[in-house]
## 1
Amino acid sequence: MSAKSRPVFLEIPNIRLPIPGIVSILHRISGVGLFVMLPVLLYFFSGTLDREASFEAYRSAISNPFVKLILIGLLWAYLHHFLAGIRFLFLDVHKGLELNTARATAKVVFASALILTVVLGALLW
């Protein structure tokens, strides 16, 4: 038996993905997170449209720092998913497939989502 026919053991924690791979995985994770949290978001939004007592309960829930952190995480998930989705639409029409361009657009998506989250999170906090 030759050494080439042996199975390869992948050490998952030691694999370093390139930035486009990280953006792709985060796009999927953010999409799942947004989908899972959709009932919570709809509940919060319904509290803004109902009676005055419901609105006050909504305001007290939103004022909790833990809830604010969750909402800022969801804000990042939305922004990242949106920006990465636009990037993937361009990739689907074969724009930006060159290695340097793909890396640059992935970095722009990653940085833009973080910067927008910090700016909007600070405004909304």
## 2
Amino acid sequence: MNKKIKTEAVDHLFEAVLTLKSPEECYAFFEDVCTVNELLSLSQRYEVAKMLREKKTYLDIAERTGASTATISRVNRSLNYGNDGYDMVFKRLGYPFEEK
């Protein structure tokens, strides 16, 4: 865990997120909390991570998501050297990706 982000305010935000019970509630909350571009950037990185786990090429990912190769590379670095957050969620959602 990155100690730079571990603050009381971030704890409060995560506690709020954990109360959300449906996609509709998520839309309402995240549209209030994030700008449209922030939300689209988060969703793009998530899609990039899924496609990387599906063994798609950078070119295919860039074409399908509009992500830059720099963004794809950053997401790939998170998948390989991060805190395993993406893989935890993928596993919980039942995605059949290989273990890293």
